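Q: I have 267 residues here and want to know how they pack in 3D. Can you give me a structure?
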Amino acid sequence: MQQSFSAVLFEKRDDGIGVITLNRPEKLNSISGPVSRGLVEVMEHVQDDPEVRCLVIHGAGRAFSSGGDVSNFPVAGREGAVQRPPWRRPHPETSHVLAIRNSDKPVVAAIHGWCVGIGISLALACDIRIASEDARFGVYQTKRAITPDGSLSYLLPRAIGLQNALLMTYTGEAFSAQQAKEFGLVWKVVPTDALMEEALELAGRIVKGPPLAQGIAKRLHYRAMESDLQDIAELESFYVGRLFQTEDAAEGVRAFLEKREPAFKGR
């Protein structure tokens, strides 16, 4: 079943996978207000749907995302540009980053073609990234004489280290998929025509897991990047106690004792 959310399409498959498609191919899926709102709407739509256990995000056409919609840049004196008061509020097209990161659903990014600017922010909001051989990555804000936005200055150094993040930012150059893998920006590089097959195969492995435990593990891993050891140790103990009370935990133990694959229900 496919649904439309502004400039984003959503397909709910029968295997527990939801596919989100950025649907501005004529603009190389540049991030606009409608794209950001569409992503937020999809994430809200699936959050409480137990039949959707993993999401795959990809772009229609020739690119994952070419970054911010340059036609809306608030350049001084340019007619038709959306004017924003300086230093007053964050980039308006960033709410989708929080919506994806705060969701309990595992999210896989399938990246092909250009993935630049705040397109990288979108990719980094996802939990695991697979790139095709033709993917290209760049912090292109530098080429427009602005600083990284869309939460990129937060996400990028945490993903690839400060030195690599500054290298990409200072130069504004395009980096290959293989270079992105060496940096740790993507997990795997695959042939272009196999990208969605690989992403869906990974999502298929994820949906076999216990969704409640996966959602809590996602929260804990991201929280751990900002917390100390004592805080995380206490949170883990709390959540493990909660999970031991679920049907999935009982099923996990039974499956182990019976030497079979578990069938998790998310309860």
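Q: Anything worth noting?
A: The radius of gyration is 19 Å. Residues 157 and 165 are 5 Å apart (CA to CA).
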